[in-house]
Design brief:
CATH class of the domain at 2-67 and 101-112: Alpha Beta
Radius of gyration: 18 Å
Number of helices: 2
Bound molecules: zinc ion
Helix content: 25-40%
CATH architecture of the domain at 2-67 and 101-112: 2-Layer Sandwich
Structural class: alpha+beta
Strand order of the largest sheet: 2-1-6
């Protein structure tokens, strides 16, 4: 499963980054672009498996879905796409291959338990 290997790399990245810190990890926020080709349900499923026995066990995975954004030369503006089927400006219809957002697959933030 593609998503499981993605999640395993997320878990090892966070584990490494947090290894020197004693706080408990509560939540990991992941940015997932519409073009990244991953399925949120599969990420959530993989997260439970991949975090088992790690410092991330019991934490939540929050997936933030990002739509595709193209730059339209005709409008000279960034335009958000409703789907991933065609890359045409939704305002003027000009095709654009200038994709500015939608391929993301990255950790945005890690929420930790506040020290009392
Ligand atoms: Zn346009």
């Amino acid at each position: 499963m593609h998503e499981l290997s993605i999640i395993q790399s997320v878990v090892s990245t966070v584990t490494e980054a947090m290894s020197a810190r004693p706080e408990r990890i509560l939540r990991v926020r992941l940015l997932v672009g519409a073009l990244s080709g991953v399925v949120e349900g599969a990420l959530q499923f993989g997260y439970e498996i991949a975090t088992d026995g790690t410092p991330l066990a019991g934490s939540k995975l929050e997936v933030v879905s990002l739509p595709v954004v193209i730059y339209c030369k005709h409008c000279e503006a960034l335009r958000e796409m409703e789907g991933v089927q065609s890359f045409r400006c939704p305002v003027c219809g000009t095709p654009s291959g200038d994709i500015r957002q939608g391929r993301e697959l990255e950790i945005e933030s890690v929420e930790i338990e506040e020290a009392a």
